[in-house]
Amino acid sequence: MKLYFNPRSRAVVAKWMLDECGAKYELVPIDLQKREHKTPEFLKINPAGKLPALVDGEARLFENAAICLYLADKFPEAKLAPKIGAPERGRYLSLVVYSTSQLEPSMGDHMMKQQTPPQRGWTDYESALDAVERELGDGPWLFGDWFTAADVMIGSMFLYMRILGGKTGRPKIEAYADRLQARPKGMKMG
Ligand SMILES: N[C@@H](CCC(=O)N[C@@H](CS)C(=O)NCC(=O)O)C(=O)O
Question: What is the CATH classification number for the domain harbouring 119?
Fold first, then answer.
């Protein structure tokens, strides 16, 4: 497997997931300053011209959420996803999609000091935090004692926000982010 990577990008999320899976992979460095992510060769892998992208034989993937779902299913021995047919599977898929479809854009609005009108299709920042708090419950992870790829995706949003200098002001979420940061294979920005 090849992960197209820059340590100062969201590709650190896919790398974290690969490490949690115990996968063997090669990092392909992409220089964003030189716009290597906009070359015709790279656009054949990720038509959006963004990092990360993952190539696994004939399979190509872009978007962290898709990469995390794919890897969790590819490495069942890592036990990072409920199996197809398991009752937890629906909530797991919902949380992974929520991370990128609702939580991430709401955070973007918050950090850019933008309003989030309901027509935008995603929720406002405080409501997104409320939803995460409800789903986290008493933790330590979104599925209690079971760490899954949903924690990688939801959790990475808070870790990324920390890197950009932001904190939620929600003790429960900050304690969750601390636990995520303390994981031996946790997300590291270059
Ligand atoms: N939702 C995407 C976000 C990807 C993304 O925005 N990547 C940024 C780096 S953090 C990028 O490649 N930006 C370069 C550009 O758009 O020119 C994912 O999670 O994969």
Answer: 1.20.1050.10
* 58 and 100 inside one domain: no
Same domain, 14 and 93: no
CA of 50 to the centre of ligand 1 (A): 4
Residue 103 and residue 153: Cα distance in Å, rounded? 10
Cα separation, 22 vs 17, whole angstroms: 9
Q: Which domain holds residue 41?
A: 2-78
Ligand 1 environment, Cβ below 6 A: 9-10, 32, 37, 50-52, 63-64, 100
Q: What are phi and psi of 184, to 5 degrees?
A: -55, -35
Say if residue 50 is in the same domain as residue 116.
Answer: no
pLDDT tens track for 127-172? 999 999 999 999 999 999 999 999 999 999 999 999 988 899 999 9
Please tell me the distance between residue 51's alpha carbon and the centre of ligand 1 in angstroms.
Answer: 5
- Name the residue with the closest Cα to ligand 1, atom 13: 50
